[in-house]
Amino acid sequence: MSDSILKVENLGKKYYLRHQQSGRYTALRDVLAGSVRSFGRRLLPGNSPAPKLRREEFWALKDVSFEVNRGEAIGIIGRNGAGKSTLLKVLSRITKPTTGRVAIKGRVASLLEVGTGFHPELTGRENIYLNGAILGMTRADIRRKFDEIVDFAEVEKFLDTPVKRYSSGMYVRLAFAVAAHLEPEILVVDEVLAVGDAAFQKKCLGKMSDVSSQEGRTVLFVSHNMPAVQQLCLKGIVLEQGQVRFNGNIDEAISLYTQQTLTTISKVNLLDRHDRTGEQNLRFSAITLCDGKGNLLQQAVTGQDLRLRFHYISSRELNRASVNIAFNVYNSQGQLLTNLNSRDVNNMEMAVGKKGYFECIWPHFNLRAGTYTCNLFCEVNNVIEDWIQSAFQINVEDGDFYNSGSLIDRTQGDFLVEYTWKAEVWNLVN
Amino acid sequence: MQTSQKELILEANHLDRQYWVDLWRYRELLYFLAWRDILVRYKQTVIGIAWALLRPLATMLVFTVVFGNLARLPSGGVPYPILVFSGLLPWQFFASALSETSSSLIDNANLISKVYFPRLIVPISSVIVSFIDFAISGVILVGLMIWFGFVPGLQILTLPLFILLTFAAALGAGLWLSALNVKYRDFRYVVPFIVQLGLYISPVGFSSQIVTDGWRLLYSLNPMVGVIDGFRWAILGGEAYIYWPGFLVSIGLVLVIFVSGLWYFRRTEESFADII
To answer: Does A106 touch chain B (CB under 8 A)?
Structure first.
């Protein structure tokens, strides 16, 4: 008999994407107006054209099958929008699958967010009980584990302080501590280690590996932090557009994922990307690279004046808006080099049309040869409109940055800066 | 530690037989949510829980002056403050429970989209919170009875029954409104309207006996009429007799609202996390 604790068969989850509607929720008015319209259409056949479909089907998960044995730690990796969070939501019973079947033996506890249900007005002590109950512990369980939780979180001095006065580090520590002491058969953890300092992240990872290897519990772990996944899990599942791309050894899974993120970035039309967040009244459609005179470029050359144009479509026109557009630049090792945005340089007042572009002028471009990956973000009047991870890449060829007539033949570092040298001499006097 | 576990199946259209078992298992969450709401409610207030006494007391005074002293409506020999208060108690319970439950799911949206538990817990705990307020303001009624030297008859023993009825009315309507509110936020604006209007069309400030017999049955289509009449009868006894046909209509309506509310809630519950 196999020791399978979780079995997922042909799992699918369908969502409807609504277009042309501003709110997240339906207003009764729209439903009523819609039904009156369709009633009228039935009365007068052939009078008006068939209604345009406003809803678009979107399969967040499709035909997902896998099996997990007791005591295994599985890493689930994939790009944003690949379906990881949806999968965890189905497994933790928050939402129902559209097709397929999941069989679970034992209790599932999910930690999809740190501090779900914490109330800022309540004290640390009160929140431990409340949060424990929300995550499915009984009062007796919590009382038994209380000291351990407090100990792990290192907050004993502040137990009777409302958590709204906690530092964010203390808050996260306490929240993780409660969840880590749940003792379910299956622990489902989503990207929660992104918060907290390095020491605490290490402590959390240690705790999770204890949970799986020593207590024999099953852990499903979602993260973009590859070293953490590698450290904790032996097996990995790579999701791509809602489907299982790979299921097996964690090292192979990670290398596949790394390749996958590199190959798809620049090819995909930005409007086809579903892995974006924000209100989406404004959506980025394309990014073009130009030289100082506005001629289109395929790649950038170190030292030239560069213009990055971020083309968008927008459902609103605003003559004067406060626009914070920002992009991060990562090198090929995934290290963040810098962030360029319109807020820091006080360039936020901009007009927004139905279509248009924002242009970032980067004079005397100082990145060295290589491929740089960028996240793109835009906030209009303090509302996040569009946010795409790994939205585009800039390919850079070395150029004559210092006007010295030759290229630099060393590859030390990713960027160059402008500088000069001079000498001061101290004359020795007897 | 390991208990032998039954296999849990998640499937589309799979009837969740576990639901009621889960509801029982999560009963402590019910307690904790109610406890949280009560704790939070009076944090950073000076007089704290006294607010639960002050509000009904002030309403009672105004109603007594307006309906009893100015309009001189009949009270059937009962001190007017007691008449008002015996109607005000169930009404305030109903009204506050209704407003709390109807927004309860939205207020706990982050819980619903991040953690699993039987969603029924949320509205039920809201009703419980209002019930606590109700119990506290019940003290005023006892005080009034002592003040006026009013001794209730044996029928007071039926009071828990009518409290249960108020509970069912509030929860039933609350289940409908909370579930509808998740999808159609319009109902946010409907609830204050119901509560405001309901105060006038329910026999709170006056006895329902002032409604002439021809209209009595129609009047009872407001389910709170039966609830408040029953409540009043349990406290005041023979002085407030029950008009049976109307009473039964009201009770029937309460049950219909409760059962249908439960049905609608259970039917839509699965999609809450997707649309909230």
So the answer is: yes
Q: Are A372 and A330 in contact (CB under 8 A)?
A: yes
DSSP secondary structure, A144-190, as one string: HHHHHHHHHHT-GGGTTSBGGGS-HHHHHHHHHHHHHT---SEEEEE
- A184-213 in b/e burial notation, b at 16+ Cβ within 10 A? bbbbbbbbbbebbeeebbebbbeebeebbe
* Residues A146, A156: Cα–Cα separation, whole Å: 11
Interface-testing mutation among A95, A108, A111, A182, with chain B (most B C-beta atoms within 10 A): A95
- In chain A the domains, ranked by start, together with CATH numbers, are 15-57 (no CATH), 60-260 (3.40.50.300), 268-412 (2.70.50.60)
Q: Distance between CA B222 and CA B216 in Å, rounded?
A: 11
Give the pLDDT confidence of B202-215 residue by residue, as tens digits: 888 888 877 777 78
- How far is residue B145 CA from its own chain's centroid? 23
pLDDT in the model for residue A24: 52
The kind and range of the H/E element at A131 are helix A124-134
Nearest to A323 by CA among A391, A392, A384: A384
Residues A17-33 have a mean pLDDT of 61
Q: What is the mean pLDDT of residues A7-25?
A: 73
Among residues B193, B136, B202, the alpha carbon closest in space to that of B169 is found at B202
At residue B95 the predicted structure's pLDDT band, cuts being 50, 70 and 90, is very high
pLDDT at position A150 is 92
pTM: 0.70
Task: Give per-residue pLDDT as tens, A365-380.
Answer: 999 988 888 999 999 9
**Are residues A93 and A188 in contact, defined by beta-carbon separation less than 8 angstroms?**
no
Chain A 108-127, residues with CB within 8 Å of chain B CB atoms: 108, 110, 112-113, 116-117, 119, 121-122, 126
> Which value, to the nearest 10 degrees, does the dihedral of the CA atoms of residues A28, A81, A206, A212 take?
80
C-alpha Rg value of chain A to the nearest Å: 26
Tell if the CB–CB gap between B184 and A185 is shorter than 8 Å: no
Distance to chain B for A122, nearest Cα, Å: 7
CA distance B232 to B91: 11
Set of chain B residues whose Cβ sits within 8 Å of the Cβ of A214: none
Q: Which of residues 164-203 of A touch B (CB under 8 A)?
A: 183, 185
* Contact of A265 with A107, CB cutoff 8 Å: no
pLDDT-derived band of residue A265, with 50, 70 and 90 as boundaries? very low
Predicted complex ipTM: 0.82
pLDDT at position A1? 44
Residue type, A8: V
User: What pLDDT is stored for residue A261 in this prediction?
Assistant: 54
* The predicted structure's pLDDT at residue A49: 47
The alpha-carbon gap from B190 to the nearest alpha carbon of chain A, in Å, equals 12
Mean pLDDT of A76-88: 86
User: What pLDDT score was predicted for residue A196?
Assistant: 63
Interchain CB contacts (distance < 8 Å): A and B: 113
User: Any residues with CB less than 8 A from the CB of B7 and at least 6 apart, and which?
Assistant: A103, A104, A105
Min Cα separation B272/chain A (Å): 8
Q: Is B12 on the interface with A (CB under 8 A)?
A: yes
Residue A179 has pLDDT above 60, yes or no: yes
